[in-house]
Amino acid sequence: MELILFATVALLALVYGVTIYNSLMTLRNHISEAWSDVDTELKRRYELIPNLVAAVKGYAIHEHETLERVTRLRSMCMADQGSVGHQEGSEKQLVDAVRKLLAIVEAYPKLRASKNYLELQQELVNTEYRIQAARRFYNGNVRDYNNCCEAFPSNLVAGMFGFKTHSFFNVDPAVRKTPGVKLEP
Question: CA-to-CA distance for 15 and 44, rounded, in angstroms?
């Protein structure tokens, strides 16, 4: 009788362990899929930026330093295949540079009225919304996975099989600030 009870408890523990392991694997795969979605939207942004820079270049010739910075940061972000935390840092710099570029445009009424520029700007805004949505989806998956890795008793299975928590993809509060615009009289 005791042997049957022990075997039943051992079998239940094994089934529970396998279930938790499979859950962790599924959540980790969701994170990979979600990051792929973020990466797709970031690449879409990278494709729009050269067009935006070219549109501004014709009007804002003396803003050469800002245009070069945006182009350099775009190239750096495209080449970055590091961790989420590392990519997060370079993305923050790119977003900040693009926002400054858009603020510079305010000084050029003809450019702001250009149909080509307006379409590019709208595409960039739409892409930013898509990036935000993909980032929320990614972070939701990271939250669920991290909860499973850290909560008892699933943390025992996670630790036993080497499941490590993932980093969230965050936006630096400084990037959220609207850059100042100086208009010369």
Answer: 44
